[in-house]
Specification:
alpha/beta; Aspartate Aminotransferase, domain 2; 2 domains; three-stranded antiparallel sheet; 12 strands; 13% strand; globular
Length: 385
């Protein structure tokens, strides 16, 4: 079976063997419903509570602030629509580079009477301070700005932004899905600065798909998206996915343990990659900004990104042309367009996102394949002109 070198960890990560081991009993003899009062149910409840503690420790929160959901997208929707349900339509602000799971529900709210503003970013993908300050003058009820961008890896100064938003009494949320396991996360400090809610997800940190959390200040008004049995402090009804939650908890514990070594190693690999990319004439987007240590978003002159991704896949390298969640709508990256990148260059964008199993040898082979493919594509282009 052909398995390309995996360079797409911002889309998802492989399941860690220790996480798989923790989950396996919950696919066999352990199968209770956490709401049941018998021994099977009590064992499941203990497992869910233990996982909640693991997640809380990893993100610097209290266990009662962790609301388990099925995905980062659900958590983002729960914040936006859950807060909106507690207010009359007012003013909502999100950054122009948010993940579709923030942009789409925000646009849905705009159709229901909310006034929506997409805060501009500069050429490096950093929130424009002047536009943000002007936005606050209109007293937004909700603000959502992601901590680290899934395409460029750009890190925002969330504490500074949230602190400024306090003057407007705005309910401030940050999507920290890409930051978990790659940056130190402390919800307590973020909350003190003004962050009311934060999204994290298991499958970005070598945990299972299907488990995520909205970390919520308990003082924040929030209506559930799903009503029913009243699970998760009545904010997310439905029988808990115990196996996935257990895996999420273990993945968070491991991510916290590795935080002192993994990001440094990945940044060294990324720096080696980007030196090679620049030698090939690539443009590296947001190169001057503070970025995640594992992420590089680049384009080669006059080469289509989707074509390059396909060629690289056949050559043995799994990369992406942008967000996995927006791949069903091909076109130039909305993140790059917001950064004022020309559409024709944005169409050439390719993302490499590194993980724990990647090696320098893989990077060198990737660069060699990239050079060979780019030369071949340019030859083909010259023939057809």
């Amino acid at each position: 079976m052909f398995l390309p070198a995996y360079l797409d960890h911002n889309a998802t990560t492989p399941l860690d063997p220790a996480v798989r081991k923790a989950m396996l009993p919950w696919f066999g003899k352990r199968f209770g419903n956490p709401s049941s009062r018998h021994e099977y149910g009590r064992a499941a409840r203990v497992a869910v509570d233990a996982a909640r503690q693991q997640v809380a420790v990893a993100v610097g929160a209290h266990p009662t602030e962790i609301i388990f959901v099925s995905s980062g997208s659900e958590a983002n929707n729960l914040f936006l629509k859950g807060v909106a349900a507690c207010h009359r339509p007012g003013f909502l602000a999100v950054s122009a580079i948010e993940h579709p799971s923030v942009l789409r529900p925000a646009e849905q709210l705009a159709k229901q009477g909310w006034s929506l503003h997409k805060v501009a970013v500069d050429a490096n993908g950093v929130v424009d301070a002047a536009d943000f300050a002007e936005t606050l003058l209109d007293m937004p009820q909700m603000i959502s700005i992601m901590l680290a961008n899934n395409e460029t890896g750009v890190i925002q100064e969330i504490e500074t932004l949230a602190s400024a938003a306090k003057t407007a009494n705005a309910c401030f949320h940050t999507d920290a899905v890409q930051a978990l396991g790659r940056l130190p996360l402390g919800f307590r400090a973020l909350n003190a600065a003004g962050v009311c809610a934060m999204t994290v997800s298991g499958h970005k940190v070598y945990g299972p798909q299907g488990a995520a959390a909205l970390v919520v200040d308990k003082r924040m008004g929030l209506q559930p998206l799903i009503a029913g049995g009243g699970q998760e402090r009545e904010l997310r009804s439905g029988t808990e996915n115990v196996a996935a939650i257990v895996g999420f908890g273990m993945a968070c514990e491991l991510a916290a343990q590795r935080l002192n070594e993994t990001p440094q190693r990945l940044q060294a690999l990324r720096d080696h990659l980007e030196a090679g990319l620049l030698a090939l004439g690539a443009t590296i987007f947001a190169q001057a900004a503070k970025r995640l240590p594992n992420t590089s978003f680049f384009a080669l002159p006059e080469i289509d990104g989707e074509t390059l991704v396909g060629k690289l896949d056949r050559a043995g390298f799994a990369v992406a042309s942008g967000s996995a969640c927006s791949s069903v709508h091909p076109g130039p990256s909305h993140v790059l367009l917001a950064m004022q990148v020309a559409p024709e260059m944005a169409l050439g964008a390719v993302r490499v996102s590194l993980g724990m199993a990647n090696t320098q040898d893989q990077i060198e082979r990737f660069l060699a394949a990239l050079q060979e493919i780019s030369v071949s594509l340019k030859r083909m282009s010259a023939v057809t002109i």
